[in-house]
Design a protein that fits this description.
Length: 91
């Protein structure tokens, strides 16, 4: 696998994993009963950005490692994924 292809796959995995990990351990202002004036009650009480980024990086590295191993040892590639966009070039 080329470096740019691997980076692109890792980038997509990282963003999907970010949205999966973001709500883990989240305490809202409503949970803490300290809603600041001008904010919604569902806003985070304390945003821990570094923790979220580190957990996302570790989890996505593990997922990418599994994907890379499957593509290297078992020959699985992006072309094996089902095509969901119709091919209008053929008649």
């Amino acid at each position: 696998m080329q470096f740019l292809s691997g980076f692109a796959v890792y980038f997509v995995i990282w963003w999907i994993t970010l949205f999966a990990i973001l709500p883990i351990g989240l305490r809202t202002q409503d949970d803490e009963e300290e809603v600041l004036l001008g904010t919604v009650a569902s806003a985070p009480a304390r945003f821990r950005g570094l923790r979220v980024v580190l957990l996302t990086t570790l989890a996505s590295a593990a997922i990418f490692g599994v994907w890379h191993a499957a593509s290297s040892w078992y020959g699985f590639s992006l072309s094996n994924l089902p095509r969901i966009v119709p091919d209008f070039g053929r008649t």
